[in-house]
Structure formats: C-alpha cells, structure tokens
Amino acid sequence: MSVLLEVRELVKHFPIKSGLFGRVTGYVRAVDGVSFKINGNTVFSLVGESGSGKTTTLRCILRLIEPTSGEILLDGRDVVRLKGKEVKWFRRNVQAVFQNPFLSLNPRMKVRDLIGEPLKTHTEMSDDEIHRKVNDLLAMVGLPSAVANQHPPSLSGGQAQRVAIARALSIEPRLLLLDEPTSALDVSVQAQILNLLMELKERLKLAYVLVTHDLSVVRYLSDYVAVMYLGRIVEVGSVVEIFNDPKHPYTLALLSSIPVPDPNVKRLRRRLTLPGEPPSPINLPHGCRLSSRCPYASNECMVKEPDLIRVSDTHYVRCIKVVKG
Amino acid sequence: MSEFRLYFNLIRGSPIYLIGLLLVSSFVIIGILAPYILTKPADAWGLTYDISRRFQPPSPEHPFGTDEYGRDVFNRVLLGTRFSLMIGVGVVALSLAIGIPVGLVAGYVGGKAGTALMRVTDMFLAFPPLLLAIALAATFGRGLLNTVLALSLSWWPWYSRLAYIQVNSVKSLPYVDAAKVVGVSELEIMFRHVLPNSLTPIITQATLDIGSAILEASALSFLGVGVPPPTPEWGLLVSSGWGTISRAWWISLFPGLSIVITVLGFNLLGDAIKELMDPRLRNLLSVRRV
User: How far away is chain B from the Cα of A103, in angstroms, using its nearest Cα?
Assistant: First the structure.
C-alpha cells in the first residue's frame, strides 16, 4: 500500500525570550528531528511521557503550529507550504479528535450544528441533506438522534467523545489524528470508545496517528509504534516487535511501568527502572539523550548521538548497545 | 427543557432575583408608558408655572408634593423614568457597540494591530470615568443625545478591556483549535466560537452598568452639564430641590429614591443573568428539576 503521510526530519524549537526587549536566550527543542511514514488504513502510535514532543508533532501535522524545519507530506505534497484551496483539500483528508471532548466541543453549539459544521464548510449540501447526514453520523457512532438537539455539557464523557468522532469523520477524511482520545474518559467508557475507533477504522478504511502515554491503548489499537524521548524517536517498530522484543533501554523502562492488575500474571522477562527525571529539553545531554539516565551507558554513548539502527525491515532503534549486544 | 422553564426555575429558586426582575420590568414598563399615563402632562413636561401651588407637601392630590414652580413632582418623576431608561440603555448599547468590536479584534487578531487598539483603549482608561464624561459633556453642550454620547465615550474602554481579556482566554481553548482543524474560516471562528463564549461577563457587566449609567447621567445633570431643564430627568430633579431641601425635602427625595431603587433592581438582575449565562449552572438547574 502506498504511503499516506510522511514526516521528514520534523523540527520544532520554541524560542525562550527574556528581559525587557524579548531577547532570545535559548530554545526549547520540543521536536528535534522526527521522521516516520504511515500507509493507508494502518494505525501508527507515538508514545512517550509528557514533554517528549509527541503532541507538538501532532500539532505541526495539523498545521496548528508552524514547524521550525522539516517536511510533512500528505500524498507527497508538503502540508506546511499549502495555500488557499490546497489547505481545504488537506483539511478534508486529515481530521482530529482531541483529549477532552468537553473542551474540544463548543459548549454553546448544539450537537447538530457541531457535526454539521465541517459539512457546511466543505460541501455544498443543503440544510436538509446535512440534517439527514448528521442523523446518519450519530447512528454510526452509536448515539440516538435525540442527542442532536442537546448541548455538549449535557452529555456524558463517552457520548461527547462520540460526537467529536462523528464531527471529525463527517467529511470522510482518510487520516484521523487522535490526541489522547481516551485519557479524559472514565475507564469503563474507554474500552467502548476504543472499540468504536477500531470498528470505524475497518469499516471506513481509515488511518490513525495516535498520540498517547497509555501503553495498553497503544497495544490494543496500533499496527506500528514509535517511542519518543526528548523530541526524538528512539525506537520504532510493529506492535509485536516493540512489546515483545524492546531493544532500547527507554522502551524497556516504559513497558516496565505498565501496571499489571493481576499479581499472578508474570511480568516482562526483563524489567528496568530509570533513575531521575528526564533532563530539560533546553539543555540536552551530550551524545545519546538517554545517556544521563541509562544504566547501560558507556563513554561511547556520551560522545555522539546514535542514528536509527536497523533491527528488521520495520524495526529500528537509536542505541549503539543493540549492535554491540 | 425550554429556556422559559429554566428562567422560571431560577427565579423561583431565589426570590431576590424575582425582586430584581420586578423592579427592572416595572421600570421598563413605566418608562415606555410614561407619556400616556400622566395625570398632569403639562406639569410633567415642565410647561406650567403656578406660584400659588408651590412647595406643597405630599398629599392625595400631589402624592410626591409640588416643586418651586408649583409642578406635580409625582408626574415629573414618572416621566423621568422614560429619560433614565433611554439614557441607561443608550449609553450601554453604544458603549457595547464600540467596545466589543475593538476588544474582539484586538484579542483575536493580536499582534501590532491588537496592541495599537488596546493602547488607544488605555488612553481613555487613564482618565477617571466621570471626570472624562463631565469634560466631554461640557464640550458637547447640554442635551439628551450629547449626554449619552459623553457617557458612552468614557464608558466603552471598560467593555473593550473586558472583551479583550475574555477573547484572549477563549481563543486558546481546544474548541478553537478544533474549529481550525475542521477548516472553519477565521472570521467564522471569531463570530461563532470565540464571541459567543466571551460574552457572559460582558453582558452581566452591561446589565449592572445600566444602573450605573443612569446614576452617572443623573450626576451630570445634577452638575448642570447633562440634560437641560425643564426636562424631568431624575438627576436634574434632585438638583432642583437641593437648594430648598430643608423646607421641601420631597422635591429631591422622590427622584433620588427612584434612582436608588432602579440601580438596585439592575444590580439584582445582573446577578441573576450571571447565573443564567453560566452553562455549567444551566445544566445543574435542568438536571435538578427534570
């Protein structure tokens, strides 16, 4: 299958201004050279802790912020440089669902108008057609059509997130970006939303980019996973490769942190806990970014940041220890 | 659940709002009907002069007494309601009409244009409001329209500040980002997503301010730079009785009382509106009653 979205060497540095005249005294290197490709109808996850740059990457792809450098290609066309009509084309193809539906849905608009808004913006449909389409979309996400006349604050969290999904899918995009789509919801509702997302992906042949710190969500939903640390991808591979055979110490540490509710279930073969906190993205450590916390770090690790090293066709890791064993 | 039921529930839940609503609605109704329910229209408009009836204390014939020209104070206060209503609503409406667009554009567009607009606003805010209004009113000359204009020009910067602050906080909310992702145009985002969600405190403030506008207009008239006599404006009526207050207290008392009651009514109603405009509270109310 052909490549749908490709991100090439994406960089986003936020300047730090200080003093009376706003002199730039440094940069927060939020995203520092991120590259990946996604095919149609697959789910690609970006995981990492807060401050790893996963949400910034997502906001760059959505054109909400302008990247410092790098390219974002949709069907081979650079998204950053699109103008006028081309932006509309991009919006029709790429939509997003955000973390908290109560914040991402205008509380003063009725559900009908919220779901109808993308249709009004992108199609020539009449009010009657939009009315019918909204009812279809509500049925698609498993909501009764009576919800259409309510305002978001009167919905439950799960219902509101379903509305957000219906709104995003109303103009039939090919790529849906999911920014922590379940972490603001009750645990009992999370599974329902995940199942809905899985079902819609198969039915509508969608591709997802999922940004989350919840590894169980990643495991359930994804085909491929990229692990981010301090603005870079440290390991990327298929779900099976990442979860069963993690190569990077940071990935291992992340997987070790998944809570296992059943004490009798055997945990990972190897476990790893990293000491300390991630260093500031303003002053990054020399060499490998994990070297300041990595128990396996040697002098060599402090000298030069490693490139991504190939493990298999789909599995790459940014750690020299992998090759050396 | 209909809007009406919601208001009804809120009012029923709290009698103090009911008082506010009653005071304001009777003020508005009297203001509209005043010219048609006068018992002594000539007295009310200040066209008569009858020395033999001057300084009469309140009686069944003259419930609020008579003034130094022998005019019926009750009729003058009654007609004054209309002028106060026109001034209060006029000042606030005109101020909103200037202040909201300035604040909305400055807040949403931001950058150099936004900073420039807000610096102009700050220039107006640098003057004490009543002092600026007095200076403007004195420059424009006496008259109803000039009074409204003078007050509005000293008033709009408060709304533009308020709008600016609100717009600035609303524009960074996720639903604005979500609308951008959908591809909604900037203009539509501004008017459909940002403005409606920024209005609550502005509308609340505006309702409260109708009372203050009436008060300030009265102050201007009292000082002799507002509405010219013989217009039965409340501030002017208070001022006209000021010199003889030891002999004929009723001339100043009744128009003064009207001002107090009206301002109080708007304050109570403003509080009620604040609660009604809060979407979270609306839900609480509808849940509680269904």
Answer: 6
